[in-house]
């Protein structure tokens, strides 16, 4: 085989920022083999297998390409992945179970699994301390949250709850870019890097900036009424 026929090596490694919506130092890090192995192990612990087209599969493909290009070597681990971990977490919220995948503290994958209405209603009632007969809807709960806890910094559980509400209202498990759920997730990611609560993004900041928030709540309310 002549040199012209030989496949050319890629000029740049596949970085986290190339395949995931991450920011900061992690975005510029090449995806390493052990990062992918850790995500595969985490997905297997939670799901019993790796997710088709999920974060582990994407990371494995990227790590393989990076090895072939000579940018990483077997056994290499990204420092942020080693320091902050590669994890898969599940959060039960009214109406859904949200599974979120993290590398170095940043979200690289998310799955929303709708739950049966009866189970959702029970969880919802327990969450607000009410009996099933007087359980309020997710839409009302979110609206009440703005009034009573609007100054609370947004965390991952808040983002998961808002995502579940949006999923139930829209009838799809796709989080719309630029929507309330996407904004809440971005705020939670940002807040995870901030130490002082006064400098963090609050719930009222996320929800109040959306001009159609009332309409969204109305849609959610109709779904769960």
Automatic annotation (TrEMBL):
Domain SMP: 14-68, 136-192
Keywords in alphabetical order: Repeat
Superkingdom, natural source: Eukaryota
Keyword field contains Repeat: yes
Keyword Repressor listed: no
A Pfam family matched in the record: SMP
InterPro entries given in the database record: LEA_SMP, LEA_SMP_dom
Family: Belongs to the LEA type SMP family.
Matching PANTHER family: LATE EMBRYOGENESIS ABUNDANT PROTEIN 31-RELATED (PTHR31174:SF7), SEED MATURATION FAMILY PROTEIN (PTHR31174)
Protein name per UniProt: Late embryogenesis abundant protein SMP subgroup
